[in-house]
Amino acid sequence: MIFTRASVIIRLGYPPGIVPIIAVETIGSNCFYHSVSLNSGQSNSIAKALPQGVDLVEKNGVLLAKFNGFSSKASGSLGASQPAAEVVKMALARKGGVRCVSVPDELSMQAAGSFAGASCCLTGMC
User: Fold this and answer.
1) Looking at the domain assignment, is residue 101 inside a domain?
2) Domain count of the chain?
3) Which long-range contacts (CB under 8 A, 24 or more apart) does 90-96 make?
4) Tell me: the pLDDT tens digits for 19-78?
5) Measured between alpha carbons, how far is 39 from 36 in angstroms, rounded to an integer?
6) Is 21 among the domain residues?
7) What's the whole-model pTM score?
């Protein structure tokens, strides 16, 4: 879900600084976060350390984190075992970048509930 939204924003070409992209995932199903961190110039690009149960795979010249199982409550309906290589490439190439954040399940659910209450919108965990 988050990968589709981020890729649409990137493809539409919104200028950096006007539309920041912040990819938020729950800890335990955060394959996009780990995949971005594995690649050149990112926080984990040298050590390439991944949590237990997560494999390092390469596809189309991009390193990806592939989850063999999930510990996040959000994984039942939304958990992807690995992100699309093309979306990771777009995120890495985007001028201004994409900020990746991982949060606990409880914080994600609380934020979604608060957002829905304040904005009268239907929200979902991504």
Assistant:
1) yes
2) 1
3) 90/6, 90/7, 90/10, 90/11, 91/6, 91/10, 91/21, 91/23, 91/32, 91/36, 92/36, 92/39, 92/40, 92/42, 92/62, 94/10, 94/16, 94/21, 95/16, 96/15, 96/16, 96/17, 96/20
4) 777 888 888 888 999 999 999 777 788 888 999 999 999 999 999 999 998 777 766 556
5) 6
6) no
7) 0.74
Residue numbers of the domain that contains 37: 2-15+26-119
Which DSSP symbol is given to 13?
Answer: T
Contacts of 19 (CB under 8 A, 6+ apart): 9
C-alpha count within 13 angstroms, C-beta hemisphere, residue 60 = 8
User: Which residues are CB-contacts of 94 (< 8 A; sequence separation ≥ 6)?
Assistant: 10, 16, 21
Distances (CA, A) of 66 to 95, 111, 114, 124: 26, 27, 31, 23
How is residue 106 written in tokens? 């409880």
Query: Does residue 20 belong to any structural domain of this protein?
Result: no
- In sequence order, the 6+-apart residues with CB closer than 8 A to the CB of 49 are none
- The answer to whether position 83 is within a domain reads yes
